[in-house]
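[Protein data]
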Amino acid sequence: MPLGGDPLDARLPLALLEAVKAIDTPAAELDADFVHELRNKRLGLSETVLQQIRRYHDAVRARQRIG
């Protein structure tokens, strides 16, 4: 079943990914060795999610919709 619909305002996926990042970000300072391991296990701290957040920020500034 194909998904369809109109493009979304970029603020919606941006808000979702920023919420995941906020939940996955530890409250305390961590040991440097543990940070690398944590980044591999927490979606919100992954480089892929951080890059996508940057793209959505750019889309919001440009008032682009995401399709």
